[in-house]
Amino acid sequence: MAVATQPQIDLHDNSLDGARAWFARKGLQRPREGRLLAGVSAGFARRYDVNPLVARLLVILGVVVLTPLVYVAAWVLMPNDPGGAPAAEDST
Known about the structure:
single chain; 92 residues; mainly alpha; 0% strand; elongated
């Protein structure tokens, strides 16, 4: 009787297979049942034993809070164009 074996994947491999192996080893896998969109929040909820609704709300809250913060940080850190003259405004 032949036993099918999975090929060993290096967890430090800089490829998609290596990243997926790392997530799988940490217990982060998207479930096939009970997921919305892609199931990422459900995977985190299952791994860390959190209610899936709470995990989804935390993801939404994180996106709503972090996106403006990242934009403001880029606004502050990104230098102005060194041209000297401001962009022409359309007078129509």
